[in-house]
Amino acid sequence: MTRWLITGAGGMLGRDLTEVLGADGRHSVTAAARADLDVTDAAAVRAAVAGHDVVVNTAAWTDVDGAETDEAAATRINGEGPRLLAAACAAEGGALIQLSTDYVFPGDGTEPYPHDAPTAPLNAYGRGKLAGERAVTELLPGRGYVVRTAWLYGAHGRNFVTTMLDLAARHETLDVVDDQRGQPTWTVALARQLVALGEAAVAGRAPAGVYHGTASGAGTWYDLARAVFEQSGLDPERVRPTTSARFPRPARRPAYSVLAHDRWAAAGVPAQPHWREQLSDALDVVGRTGA
Length: 291
Fold this sequence. Notes:
This protein has 291 residues and is of the alpha/beta class.
């Protein structure tokens, strides 16, 4: 039986990952929420990691705009936390799967970013997550896995899809950004992929390093909003396109966040389904508010 430790287990991805693992009798799962484990506490991290075969770090500072005003605090969690987890895994012999982000890229691409594309974060959040990536690959060159993801949504937290469903019930029309392109990714689909990667790592089939854990296909926030309306039985014409300039934010966002998935074949793990297919399955769980 494979022994898993999930950090950040109270979050949107952490909860889905815990549920996916728990539904499979081949795994023993320790779910550590923020209150259970401070990933910046070296002694606590070492104690938590002991006895586990696979550690998945979903703990993170996720306030992208807040990181601009407190980059040091954000980097302690997103950079130093992974370093401590990697050091503990190196000492204990376990594998580490570190969740990272498309924000490590500058967002000026026109073709999907491969896993080894040059990084150049636009904001403090991206810089902190890149520090975490580097710590894992440096300290665990043979058992460290970085999985970059993006545009996550799910049933266990506020996100774009649930916001669209909520706003649909209260507004006749919505203006949604149409100049940022990415891959809307359901946390359950990502959780299933992470479990497959962890299993492959334990079996010695998955090369260590960077993978891109996002849905297949690509679209804009406007495309996603229209799909949410359409698949929820609402009129997609209620969604109107606009530009990012209409919604200025403290942290710069990448305009192009499409990631390539070629490396999964080396681990024997399938790429995720198309984002529209994921959304159709997810809406049965998230709910069809306003339908």
